[in-house]
Each structure stands twice: as C-alpha cells, then as structure tokens.
Recover the amino acids of this structure.
C-alpha cells in the first residue's frame, strides 16, 4: 500500500496527461522489452493510475524486486527499480562440505539465485525438519548475510541440538520370531553397551526411518508367509529432559500361507512359460521377496524381446480359511519398440565412436533390456567414465531414442610419486600414461620405476578395438632389474599380442614374448647364467563387472598358458589363472558394503629347463599380505628360496565407505595361500588386516596394514605396503 500511495501523490492531477516516453531504471534481471510486455503500457496512451498500479503488482510477482516506484515528469513515465541482491556465496556452517551440496539442492538454493527473505525462512524450517529426521532435537538455525553492492554472501549457521537415544525397544505379541530377530532388521534399535564403539549400535533415533521400520517388520513376516500380520505404528515415548526414548511395537502374527497355484496370464503370447524359471512354487510357503523377484524376472524376460514398456501386474488371492494363496502375474507387453537413434552427450574428450562401440543397441535394433544394462556396464568397465546413464526417450509408439550421458574421469596421468614396500624399500616412480589418449581409446604409457631392489623401464601401446572392430592388438618393450633374495635378475625384451572378443564378456588373446635374461647368483658355488626365452601365451579373459576400478557386482576371471621353448633355452609350460567376484550389499542392508572374493592359481610343468626366476612365489599385495613380496617359497637345506611349481592363494574382503566425498573406502581382508614344489599344500600361510582404498585423481591407491597370522622363523613379514593403479 505504501508504494501505491507514493504513486498517487506523484501523479495526482495528471490523469489527463499523455505518455510521451517510458523509461525503466535499475533493471538487471529483466530487459526493458520484457518489462514493457509485463506493464502493457505504451507511448501515446493517456496516464492511467489504475493501470500503472496493476503493472507494479505484476512486476512484483516476478520476485526480483525489493522496491518499485513510478513517477511522471513532463511526458515521461519512469519506473525505478531496486532489485533484490544476488547470492554470491552460500555455505551451511555445521554440515560437512560433502553434505552441503545435497542439502542446498533439496532447499533449492544456489549461488546466483535471488536472495528472498521468505524463501530463506522456509529454508530454515526445512533444515529444522531435516535435523529432526536425523534425530537432532532443539536445534537452532540462523542466517548471517554480508551485502556488498547488489550481491550477498549467505551463511546458514546450523547448531545441531541433542540426539535422542533409544534406551528401550519392546515387541508385544511376537511368538514366531524372538525380539533379537526382529530388532536386527530395524534401523532404529536399542542402544547397546559401549554403543559408541565401531560395530556396536549407538541407539540414535532416526525419525524418518520410523514408518519404514514398520514396513520392514511387516515385510519380514511376509517373507515367511504371514500375510495377515498386523503391526502397530512404532509407539515412541521421548523424555526430552534426558533425551532418551522408549519404543513399542504391537504385533498380531496370524498364520503362514502356502502357495496353492502360480498363474501367468498373458494379454498376448510373448513368453514360452517353460523357458522362465520362477522362485515361488506351488506347495511352498509364500515369500514376498520371491514374489517380487519373480515379477521382475517376467518383466525382464518380456523386455528382452523388445517390449520396452511391458507392464507386469503381480497379484495374490489369499484364502483365509485354508491359509493358502493364489499367485497371479498378468503380463501386458504393449508394442515392440525399436531404437530410433543413440544420442551421446557428456564426452568432452572421448570420441563419439569410442562410446558408441560399447553400446550394444544401434538404430534399427529391437530393444533389449539386457543389452541396455550390458552397455552401461561395458562403458563403466572401460575406465574412461566416472558416471554412465542411459535414458530411454519414447519418440513414437514403436520407437525410442537412447540418450547415453557420460561423465568423464581422468585417464591420463603424469605421475612423479613415491611408495614403500617391505622388501623393495622406498620406491620412486615417474610415469606418463593415458589409457584413452586424445579420446581415441588407445592405451599408451611410458613408465620408469626404481627402488632399493628394482628398476623398471616400460613402454606400451595397446589398441583394445582396432578400427572399432572386435580385434585388439598391442606391443610392449621393457627392461627390468630385480634383486631377489637369492639372485639378481636383469631382463630385457618385448611382446606383441593380438586379441578378439569372442562374446560380449569373453576375450581371447595370443601373445608372443621374447626376453634376454641375465642371472647373477648370490651363492658363489652357482655359475651365473645368460640365456634367452621365447614364449607363446594364449589366454582368455571373462569380465561381467559393472566398473573398472571399483566394481560392485560381477565376475572378472582370466586364464593363460605360457609355452616356453619355441626358441631359446628355457622349456616349460606355465598355467596361471585369476578369479574375482564382487557383490554389493546396498540393496539388501541399505549400506554400501562390497564383498569380494579373489583367487589365483599357478601351475608349472618343467619340460627340461626351468630357471629359478620363472618359478612361483607367494607374499605381498597380490597373494598373501603380511609377508614380503615373493618371500614365501619352498627352500633348500640352507633355507634358500628355490620357488614352487604349484601355488594357490585366495582372499575374502569387505569394503565400506570411509570418506565418501574423497572417494575413500576402508576394506578388511583375510588372505590364505598354499605353495609347493611337488604338491600345493607343502607351505601354508595366512594374513589379515585393513586397507585404505582411495580413488584419487591420479588413480586408485591402496594403503595396506597387514598382520601375518602363522609365520615361521624363516619368513619375512611386513605390516605396511602401498600400491597404485590396481583394481580394488
């Protein structure tokens, strides 16, 4: 009203005046043309107070302005604007930097936005609500602003309140499952003794999880057939004096149900039902988890036949008298869908064709859900991309576009680094490499590495997809010096390989290797040797993992057979196989834990000439951690290492987030291996410990803290090692 009165005073008595010119002063966010379209006032009109007042109100609706004043002088109508300040910087004090971005996104506040007082008050309320969801009560939020010109720096200061701990959690009416079974599936659990320790439950309440906990309980019962189970809301009684809580669930269990029939109804015949294996079967106890899994199985099977927009409607028909249930799946496949176009974005460096060759769907192809998922995983396995999304955009009843959005990650490195190994001592490394040079997909590298015991010079060029075909090739030239426990070894040579993708996940390669070897024995009774070796090495590699550096699912396996003796002195056959399996638990336990199993198997058949340096050894980061690299080996009467011909090593690992913003994780491991000359189990060793895994800008880095479990007096043990560039 105040601004309207100012206008009335300014223009009173001028109603009969004509508008000869219109001026807009102080506009930043709106152009004069846009302002003119909003006011709808034009030159030549008579001055109209009501029309001007209406224009001011409509301008205010855009929420850009703190003040608007209209004045008239000698035929010129002037609108003077004072705009609200722009947020030049915004911080949330009291939250970690990694959390701030997600919170600001949820609040809808960002640098460059208009500072609006009403919106800020709503943001304060939203943060208070968020804090209560996180279990913080009696929190305080204040806004601190620093204005300079037409900009403002905003600090949202968060003082988190007290957290409530659940001191008592009770269940009433449960007879089938005991309290411990039920509590273990809840997010909100009773505080344990020494709950602040890692692995113990601190009892902190998570308000946002309370309604979900009720559903978790119901779901748990329904996994065991209890369809009639009734569970009360989690009755919560909070003592805000001591910030302690009691929680109670009342349960009416009912009886378990048995599956009487499983029926699949198809709108039109798209599936041969005898080709689909379902988990739920007639006569067994109903399980809601298997019910959901079967629904997805049917959906995926139909989607793989081109029906991208299939709808599978699962239903259950319970018989409460007999405690049986009919399971019915109704399939509405819709129309078959073909790929119209594949649109690639986000690849500022990588050439389009390098991305496209990993996508197993092309224009004109019939849609397949499996092909879509395999494409996403294949792109992640290249190691070129930090993030990959493939979106489906329908452009016609029977056509869709695939929008492949990638976020690139560094693939080229210039590394000047240092590390430490228990046997090698301090290690110095200079490397220039790029596994996607110029975005071409070519892998090129020069590596120089020196330590107290080793020196390595290596140049390689690999093309994983020659002319975007299924063929690969590469060449490697190297010179290595290695001071082993019983001898010094110098090798120089090179290799060349050709490969072919035999299937989507299986690749075969054939490598030719030539090496000149110089052995200098520490034992004065042994004669130093110089010889050469030539080998042919066929190998197979199988990979279904979903990421190159940090897989959460899938299998990576390889096996090779080196035949030495084509030319040169050495004659032997060496078989070497590796196997890794990854399983992420986030969908099951709502926590980003990754389980890993890794194994290596080596076997050598001596065909007449086998040097000690070609034999098998254990110990170090690749086999059994807690022991120095290659230190575990059969020994002679003087306890000198002579190497083995049979070796097996495996490990289990559990990896959890440590500092998510820094892409840092913590893994715990248990390694066990066997090695021998005549049999596998002549020597057995185990080690355990923890690893800090860091997906750093320079590549994956591991800091290994290990403990040998069953070492003997002849063993060389180590408690710390460092690796770089290896897959987790």
């Amino acid at each position: 009203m105040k601004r309207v009165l100012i206008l009335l005073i300014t223009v009173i008595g001028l109603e009969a005046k004509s508008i000869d010119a219109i001026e807009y002063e102080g506009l930043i966010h709106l152009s004069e043309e846009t302002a003119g379209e909003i006011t709808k006032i034009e030159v030549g009109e008579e001055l109209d107070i009501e029309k001007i007042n209406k224009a001011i109100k409509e301008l205010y609706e855009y929420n850009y302005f703190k003040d608007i004043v209209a004045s008239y002088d000698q035929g010129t109508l002037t609108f003077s604007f004072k705009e609200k300040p722009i947020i030049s910087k915004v911080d949330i004090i009291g939250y970690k930097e990694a959390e701030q971005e997600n919170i600001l996104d949820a609040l809808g506040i960002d640098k460059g936005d208009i500072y609006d007082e009403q919106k800020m008050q709503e943001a304060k309320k939203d943060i208070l609500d968020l804090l209560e969801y996180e279990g913080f009560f009696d929190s305080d939020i204040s806004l601190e602003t620093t204005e300079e010109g037409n900009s403002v720096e905003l600090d949202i200061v968060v003082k988190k309140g007290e957290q409530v701990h659940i001191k008592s959690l009770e269940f009433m009416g449960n007879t089938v499952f005991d309290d411990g079974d039920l509590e273990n599936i809840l997010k909100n659990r009773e505080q344990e003794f020494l709950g602040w320790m890692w692995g113990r439950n601190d009892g902190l309440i998570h308000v946002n999880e309370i309604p979900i906990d009720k559903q978790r309980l119901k779901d748990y019962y329904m996994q065991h057939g209890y369809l009639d189970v009734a569970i009360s809301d989690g009755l919560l009684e909070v003592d805000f004096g001591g910030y302690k809580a009691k929680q109670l669930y009342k349960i009416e269990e009912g009886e378990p149900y048995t599956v009487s029939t499983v029926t699949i109804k198809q709108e039109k015949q798209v599936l041969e039902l005898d080709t689909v294996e379902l988990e739920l079967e007639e006569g067994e106890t109903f399980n809601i988890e298997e019910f959901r899994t079967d629904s997805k199985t049917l959906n995926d099977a139909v989607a793989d036949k081109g029906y991208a927009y299939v709808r599978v409607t699962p239903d259950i028909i319970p018989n409460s008298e007999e405690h049986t249930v009919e399971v019915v799946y109704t399939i509405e496949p819709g129309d078959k869908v073909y790929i119209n176009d594949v649109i690639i974005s986000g690849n500022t460096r990588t050439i389009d064709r390098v991305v496209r060759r990993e996508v197993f769907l092309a224009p004109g192809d019939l849609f397949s859900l499996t092909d879509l998922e395999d494409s996403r995983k294949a792109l992640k396995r290249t190691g070129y991309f930090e993030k990959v999304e493939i979106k489906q955009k329908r452009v016609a009843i029977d056509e869709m576009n695939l929008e492949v959005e990638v976020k690139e990650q560094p693939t080229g490195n210039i590394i000047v680094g240092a590390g430490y190994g228990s046997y090698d001592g301090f290690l110095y490394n200079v490397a220039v490499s790029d596994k996607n040079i110029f975005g071409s997909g070519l892998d090129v590298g020069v590596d120089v590495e020196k330590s107290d015991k080793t020196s390595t010079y290596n140049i390689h060029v690999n093309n994983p997809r020659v002319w975007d075909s299924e063929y690969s090739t590469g060449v490697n030239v190297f010179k290595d010096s290695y001071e082993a426990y019983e001898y010094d070894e110098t090798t120089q040579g090179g290799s060349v390989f050709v490969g072919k993708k035999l299937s989507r996940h299986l690749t075969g390669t054939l490598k030719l290797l030539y090496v000149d070897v110089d052995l200098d024995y520490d034992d004065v009774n042994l004669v130093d040797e110089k010889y050469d070796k030539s080998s042919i090495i066929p190998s197979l590699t199988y990979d279904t993992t979903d990421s190159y550096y940090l897989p959460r699912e899938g299998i990576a396996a390889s096996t090779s057979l080196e035949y030495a003796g084509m030319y040169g002195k050495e004659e032997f056959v060496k078989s070497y196989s590796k196997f890794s399996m990854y399983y992420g638990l986030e969908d099951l336990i709502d926590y980003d834990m990754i389980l890993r199993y890794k194994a290596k198997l080596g076997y050598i058949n001596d065909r007449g000439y086998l040097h000690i340096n070609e034999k098998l050894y254990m110990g170090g980061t690749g086999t059994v951690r807690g022991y120095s690299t290659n230190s575990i080996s059969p020994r002679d009467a003087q306890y000198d290492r002579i190497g083995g011909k049979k070796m097996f090593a495996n490990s289990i690992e559990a990896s959890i987030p440590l500092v998510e913003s820094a892409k840092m994780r913590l893994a715990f491991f248990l390694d066990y291996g066997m090695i021998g000359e005549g049999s596998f189990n002549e020597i057995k060793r185990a080690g355990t410990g923890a690893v800090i895994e860091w997906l750093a800008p320079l590549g994956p880095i591991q800091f290994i803290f290990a403990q040998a479990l069953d070492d003997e007096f002849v063993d060389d043990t180590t408690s710390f090692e460092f690796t770089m560039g290896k897959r987790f």
Q: What stands out?
A: The chain has a mean pLDDT of 83. The CA atoms of residues 63 and 131 lie 29 Å apart.
